[in-house]
Amino acid sequence: MSSHREAPEVSKDPVADNTDVYAFVSPDKPDTVTLIANFIPFQNPQGGPNFYEFGDDVLYEIHVSNSGRAGDADVTYRFRFHTEIRNPRTFLYNTGPITSIRDETWNRPQFYSVSRYDHHRGWKTLAHRLACPPVNVGPRSTPSYSKLAAQAVHRIAGGRTVFAGQRAEGFHVDLGSIFDLGTLRPFQMAHLIPSATAVGVNGTQGLNVHSIAIQVPKTDLTAKNVQPKDVADARSVVGVWATASRQKIRVLHEGRGKAANAGPFRQVSRLGNPLFNEVITPMAEKDEWNAREPEDDKRYAKYVARPELAGLLPALYPGVFPKLAAYTKDRADLLAILLTGIPAGVVPGFQNYTGTNQADMLRLNLAVPPTKKPNPIGLVAGDAAGFPNGRRPVDDVVAIELRAVAGATIPLVDPSFTPDAATAGLTDGTTNTNPPFLAEFPYLGTPAGGYQTTPGTPGGAS
Q1: Euclidean distance between the first and final Cα of the chain, in Å?
Q2: Mean pLDDT, to the nearest integer, of 14-24?
């Protein structure tokens, strides 16, 4: 998983559990950047009568660094949610078909505000009482769901566009194999039984998430609002991460089933690069990692320099990764990819370096244009618009990171190393078998409907 239930404590708090972060130059509007933060993992589309929604008591934020710092963000977008009940006398989520996000038949609408922080100018409210869409209940309750959800795409101040609501899970991974001691189905079958073939089983197939998406002009993110034009210019690179925070004090009211929250907010979840806390940070340190700022990530650099998975692959597949097993140097390639960005000269014509400070952020070079035909393997396959240059929904980050850990990126910093032959095809064997992505904002696909979906199979709606 990218960051679904990645730490013991946040796994008990799904509305604050940040599952994926995306940052990319918008393919249909290349003068803008789209930032997406997903929350609430593994949503069963049939999850009524209390369907999934954002937490009114959670502070959701997407942060941007444009100065190389990773402590206080230079730019932050903050989202606060408010839920109402229109008819307190019914148990139903909706009392009839919902054809508009303003329909009175939707009994539990949710609204939100958007604020922007600038390091030099402070906070400014951009919009308030923006409507979320309902979840995809089914064809009678939410007919023509894609049209209904489109009503929740809001144009707000400063040429910005926002959306907050349920979307189809776009991340795919074979959970059963990854966490069964790395039993990668196609890879294991090919090496243990050469004549056999197998595909991975997508563990997120047919499930949904809740997305916060904002599309902004590039100059909304850069220092001094510089228009990024030169890939080699350090001012073209920004770092992106998302967080969820809760207030320190929670008081349960006896006999009322409600709670009151007070005190300052404290971070309980964060995410930059996919799979960082998931498979790099040791179990005993995962909750602490979630509570820290990216500027503190130098304490985790030792796990990036010598990742546990790199030692497990040769043990799990004897004789398949002899060169990786013999490699004893610190992984300078992974340190660059995940903690500092890739300096100029490593990949010809590309860089997303943010300095020597080690911090887990998605690093995006805004001067790199979108690719007309994106390669899901991203920069590793020569597509400079893809991960680890930011992250697009289409990027197969599991395959990319498996190959990187197995040694595919070592030659970038150590030309004397030649990866093992198996590295080039290393994958969990999955593809995106969830609903297709959209060609325009908010890009993530139509969520699977409760009525239409059989658990474990693809779902969707018109």
Answers
A1: 28
A2: 96
Residue of higher predicted confidence among 182 and 299: 299
Residue count (the chain) = 462
Alpha helices for 336-460 (secondary structure H): 397-403
- The answer to whether 269 and 17 have CB atoms below 8 angstroms apart is yes
Distances (CA, A) of 26 to 35, 434, 445: 9, 21, 16
Instruction: Give the H/E segment covering residue 76.
Output: strand 75-83
Domain borders along the chain are: 10-425
Distance CA 140, CA 92 (A): 14
DSSP state of 219: G
Cα separation of 153 and 68, whole Å?
32
Which of 236, 239, 411, 222 has its CA nearest to residue 340? 239
Paired tokens of 217: 């002009």
Instruction: Give dist(CA 77, CA 60) in Å, integer.
Output: 8
CA distance 390 to 387: 5
Answer whether 96's CB lies under 8 Å from 142's CB: no
pLDDT of the residue at 48: 86
What average pLDDT does the chain have?
92
Residue type, 260: A
Tell me the two tokens of residue 404. 């990187």
H helical segments located in 100-174: 145-150
- Has this prediction a pTM greater than 0.85? yes
